[in-house]
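Reminder to self: tokens first, then the designed residues, so the page reads top to bottom the way the pipeline ran.
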């Protein structure tokens, strides 16, 4: 995989981080999980996965995320690929901006952009959300809170390279394999189109 940004989007507990790590293991891509930015702030305000996060925290996290995207666009190696993760909601204008900034970063790099919508069953969520690993990473661990969040609509993504995947009953390695295969197909199609129009 070369010069590709895969953006994993889904509710809490669908496996975004786990699948991102598996994509990285299989391809050498670099992971920019949303908690890489979030936890700079969360660790300072003692975020516990249950208490409402102050709105000001999200403003500061946005600054960190944007600086990371600038680094990807302007100073990361040309061949590098990235996996981004986030729970983006349709009704939140900041979430639409976050998605659009991911698209713009890929365009600045002249690379391949693949948004992936991940979903999982209520039963899978109930098992995954309260895990000790999530608590260690300062993630949402409140099952009821996560259930309420799942009532919110995930960002409507109409990008032509979109890929949808239900992670309820497949292992992360297989989920990663399917996403990588789709990204490879998109890259081949874009390459063929460039050759045909040059």
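Designed residues (198 positions):
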């Amino acid at each position: 995989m070369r010069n590709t940004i895969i953006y994993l989007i889904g509710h809490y507990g669908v496996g975004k981080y786990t699948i991102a790590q598996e994509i990285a293991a299989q391809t050498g891509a670099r992971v920019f999980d949303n908690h890489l930015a979030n936890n700079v702030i969360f660790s300072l305000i003692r975020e516990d996965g249950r208490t409402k996060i102050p709105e000001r925290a999200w403003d500061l996290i946005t600054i960190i995320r944007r600086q990371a995207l600038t680094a990807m666009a302007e100073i990361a190696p040309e061949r590098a690929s990235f996996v981004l993760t986030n729970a983006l909601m349709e009704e939140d204008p900041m979430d639409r901006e976050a998605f659009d900034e991911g698209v713009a970063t890929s365009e600045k790099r002249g690379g391949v952009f693949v948004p992936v919508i991940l979903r999982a069953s209520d039963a899978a969520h109930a098992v995954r959300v309260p895990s000790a690993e999530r608590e260690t990473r300062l993630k949402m661990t409140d099952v009821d809170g996560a259930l309420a969040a799942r009532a919110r609509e995930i960002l409507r993504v109409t990008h032509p390279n979109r890929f949808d995947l239900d992670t309820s009953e497949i292992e992360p390695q297989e989920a990663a394999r399917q996403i990588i295969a789709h990204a490879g197909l998109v890259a081949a199609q874009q390459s063929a189109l460039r050759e045909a129009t040059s």
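The longest strand covers residues 112-119.
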